[in-house]
Each structure stands twice: as C-alpha cells, then as structure tokens.
Amino acid sequence: WRDTLANPDNTARQKDYMRAFGSRSVYTPQAVINGRTHVNGSNRQAIETALAETGGLPVAVSVKHAGDSMVIEVGESSGTNQKAHVLLVYYDLATPIAIRDGENQGRTLYYWNPVTGIQTAGIWHGAVARFEMPVSEIAKKGTGGCAVLLQAVGKDGAPGPILGAATIPRADSL
C-alpha cells in the first residue's frame, strides 16, 4: 500500500540520514534519535534506550511569542567553534489512516506527529543568536505545531547531530 503521509522532502531527508549512518537502505517506521542513531520507530524500548544513550543536547534553544513574531533564541557552544542549521520541522496532530491493503487491511492506524514540512530558518555560528519568524507563517504549516532543531551539518551536507531543540505550540494556541 502507498504511504499517504509520504512526501519527497521527508524521503530525501531519510536518504540523507541513510548515507550519514552508512546504512544500505531506508525503512519505515524509522526513528532518528538526536541525529546520532536510528531505531525501529515502532519499538518503544529501543527509542527509550537510544534516548538515554545519546544523552542531552548541549546547546540551549528557546522560543517565545512576541507580537506577530516567534523568536528563537540559541545559546552559545561550550566547545569549539561550531556551525549548525536552525530548522523548523512542522507536524500535524495524531492522524488516523484507513489501511486498504496489506497485513493491516481494514484497520485504522494512528500516526503521531507526522512531519508535514521542513524549513531552514537560519545558520547558527556557535555564538548566542536570535532568529525571528512571522507567526502567520508558522501557524499555517502544521496543525500539531513545530519543532525547532539546531542541527550540525556535515561537509557533504549530510545531517549531523542535533545540538539543541525546542517546540513551538500548536497554531490554535498562538
């Protein structure tokens, strides 16, 4: 059956992670943990273990609502001079999908926080920085909200470790 939540940007990102992790293929459901490792996304224990093993995020990221803007504030790096992308990852609320074929035919499965889009908001250079986005742009991109990820990027453009993260609330709560 065809994945009705799939989109080319998500597929490209998954393939970028495949190359970054030295894997031979992509799979679904895949959970990438802090940009450092990947596990089967349907295995809660594997996800919890991977979260514990990857540790915390070293750079503080916060978000606040200021009038018509969402302000993203990123702290400084405690290590050597770093550079990372500030990514906005939009997602929807739990989405029910009626399965028409395959082993789950006739069932309705819920997909939690499916990603609907990714946007680069800026580049962080290791020092305290502030990024401002219009609330109107964020509000129309995902019904569940938006995650802000501070992600290192390899020389070849491959996604690297997540250095910091925060969430922007659902559009109806802005």
Oligomer: single chain
What is the chain-wise order of helices and strands?
Answer: HEEHEEEEEEEHEE
State the total count of DSSP E strands.
11
**Low-confidence parts:** none
Helical stretch tally: 3
Structural class: alpha+beta
- What percent of residues adopt helix (DSSP H or I)? 10-25%
Would you tell me the overall average pLDDT?
A: 88
Q: Which outline best applies?
A: globular
Computed CA radius of gyration, to the nearest angstrom: 17 Å
Strand residues, percent:
35-45%
List keywords for this structure.
11 strands, single chain, 17% helix, three-stranded antiparallel beta sheet, 174 residues, alpha+beta
Briefly, what is this?
By secondary structure, the chain is of the alpha+beta class. It is built from three helices and eleven strands.
Describe this structure in words.
The model has no long low-confidence stretch (mean pLDDT 88). It is built from 3 helices and 11 strands. With 174 residues, the protein is of the alpha+beta class. Helices cover 17% and strands 41% of the residues.
Describe the secondary structure blueprint for this structure.
Layout: H1 8-20, E1 30-33, E2 37-40, H2 44-54, E3 61-66, E4 69-74, E5 84-91, E6 95-98, E7 108-111, E8 115-124, E9 129-134, H3 135-139, E10 145-153, E11 159-168
Antiparallel strand pairs: 1-2, 3-4, 4-9, 5-8, 5-10, 6-7, 10-11
